[in-house]
Design goal:
Structural class: alpha/beta
Order of helices and strands: HHEEEHEHEHEHHHHHHHHHHHHHHH
Radius of gyration: 29 Å
Distance between the termini: 76 Å
Number of strands: 6
Strand order of the largest sheet: 3-2-1-4-5-6
Strand content: 5-15%
Largest sheet: 6 strands, mixed
Length: 530
């Protein structure tokens, strides 16, 4: 390689020797991104030094993300491995390559603080996501996997272009669970919606969110065996991959049009003159057929977001994982209210896709909101009762003469019952006037709901649901909670009421009602509650 004076004194060394020096800067398995013992300040010395070192570090490198579909309260988001094929690093030879460097990402927030929220994906030859199979009889595990995939996609959005994304559908190492059920067919924990679902099988569900990445250039899907590859129905996945390609072509055409300048402005004007002479009906059909691939992917992903929560809330019966996921979904929504991720996403879907209101009933989200608010009030009442008992226990003991026997007996009985619970006072700050931190609020919320529903929340309209929480869910509790926290709960309550009115005025609702009348099937106009 020719001498490069911009490298300073390093330019006197041959490239092969410089390459060996730069290879020492590559992370090793003994290091962690948050506690690296390699000094990388040399990257700031020169732009030319930075480019040469950066090319050596990332050459033929891949990033692998491993997701676990099993739900655990303290489960990690994923594990990231950096693998690199290089003659200077594979000291064991081709048959015994060097072990990869791995990091464990606890959550999206922690991943962003460690630099994974703005990854330079374009420097890697390939990004790999390994997705092991969830339990085919447990839609709760499929929901947990889908949530982790969405969180991972949110991290990928902040990075640069992903040249090649490979998704591997794998067996689960812990118990050998694969994507085939007991009847030797692809597992079907997922139930597609009658008309609007893009996904048809379990393996379609984690693929769709990745297709919405605006920085994705190419996508491939591989399986763990030829047998499963032959059993799979590739229609949905092939269609999604085609939409990704079409989306990239659209982006390239937009870039070319932007570079063309004045010529790009003249064409739309000429086209608009032709549109004036088009028949109105044909023009609408043409607009619909010209729906961009990117918009089509976003629309499909938006509906699946609603449908996955609808499945979890309505149909996921008899699964402990589903019960826990249901509890956690309502807990986070009730805790944050209008600032919660779920409510923001539902409101965004309603705003961007107004036709959604005319085709989908508001029963599911209305019941979820109603139950979540009531259960949050019950958990808060239990916490207040525990605080009162703790305060009484810490107060100085009164003299026997000043304490009536009946009062002393009732309080002591209540204390004995309450102190046997699992609520912990350690989440409260020592100073009563000191505001709680976000971490303390989160920990207190987890403890309250875990004490109220230790086994999770059963599916609606079942005997287990009525026995567990039926007595806690009433109209007075809901309306009192909405009045007390208007800013948190009232906007969505008002939105759901408007949604219900609009749905009943739609032609779709009247058609559905006529079908139910002809078949003699009762139609649930309102939700299970309210």
């Amino acid at each position: 390689m020719a001498t490069m004076p911009n490298l300073g004194l390093f330019a006197r060394l041959p490239y092969e020797l410089r390459e060996k020096i730069w290879a020492e800067l590559v992370p090793t398995p003994a290091q962690d991104m948050s506690n690296s013992n390699t000094d990388l300040s040399i990257l700031r010395a020169s732009h030319f030094l930075h480019d040469e070192i950066d090319e050596v570090i990332h050459r033929r490198g891949t990033l692998e993300f491993d997701i676990d579909p099993v739900y655990r309260p303290t489960a990690d988001l994923c594990t990231v491995s950096f693998r690199r094929k290089h003659r200077l690093l594979d000291h064991g030879g081709a048959d015994c390559p060097s072990p990869p460097v791995s990091w464990t990402l606890k959550s999206v927030a922690s991943a962003k603080t460690r630099g994974f929220g703005s990854m330079a994906f374009h420097k890697f030859d390939q990004v790999i996501v390994n997705i092991p199979s969830p339990d085919p009889n447990d839609v709760g595990e499929l929901f947990c996997l889908w949530q982790k995939v969405r969180n991972l996609v949110s991290l990928f959005r902040g990075g640069t272009q992903i040249k090649s994304l490979l998704i591997r559908l794998l067996e689960r190492e812990s118990d050998g669970q694969n994507w085939i059920d007991t009847l030797d067919w692809p597992s079907t924990a997922y139930t597609p919606a009658p008309a609007r679902s893009t996904c048809q099988h379990d393996y379609d569900v984690p693929i769709l969110p990745f297709c919405t990445l605006p920085n994705l250039k190419a996508l491939r899907v591989e399986t763990y065996s030829e047998e499963f590859t032959e059993l799979m129905d590739w229609y949905v996945i092939d269609g999604l991959i085609k939409l990704v390609r079409d989306s990239n072509r659209e982006r390239e055409r937009e870039r070319e049009s932007a570079n063309a300048g004045g010529n790009a402005e003249a064409k739309p004007k000429a086209k608009s003159l032709k549109d004036k002479f088009k028949v109105k009906g044909k023009g609408r059909a043409s607009d619909k057929s010209r729906l961009s691939a990117r918009a089509d992917l976003e629309r499909r992903n938006a509906f699946e977001y609603y449908w996955m929560h609808s499945l979890l809330w309505t149909y996921a019966d008899g699964s402990r994982t589903a019960d826990l996921m249901r509890r956690e979904t309502l807990r986070e929504w009730a805790r944050d209210g209008c600032k919660s991720v779920f409510e923001k996403e539902i409101c965004r879907i309603i705003q961007e896709y107004p036709e959604f209101l005319n085709r989908q009933s508001s029963n599911v989200v209305r019941d979820m909101h109603y139950v979540g608010v009531c259960l949050n009030a019950a958990a808060r009442r239990r916490r207040l009762e525990y605080d009162a008992v703790s305060a009484f226990a810490c107060a100085p003991a009164p003299t026997p003469a000043s304490t009536p026997a009946s009062t002393s007996g009732s309080i002591s009985g209540f204390t004995a019952r309450s102190t046997s619970g699992s609520l912990s006072a350690s989440t409260f700050p020592s100073d009563e006037n000191k505001p709680m931190t976000a971490a303390e609020i989160e920990k207190q919320s987890e403890e309250d709901w875990d004490t109220l529903l230790p086994a999770g929340l059963p599916v609606l309209e079942t005997g287990e649901f009525g026995m567990a929480v039926g007595h806690l869910i009433t109209d007075p509790v809901y309306y009192d909670s909405v009045r007390e926290d208007r800013d948190k709960y009232e906007p969505f309550d008002r939105l759901v009421r408007k949604w219900g009115l609009r749905f009943r005025r739609s032609l779709w609702w009247h058609l559905k009602r006529r079908i139910h009348q002809k078949l003699g099937i009762p139609m649930m106009i309102d939700g299970y509650y309210r």
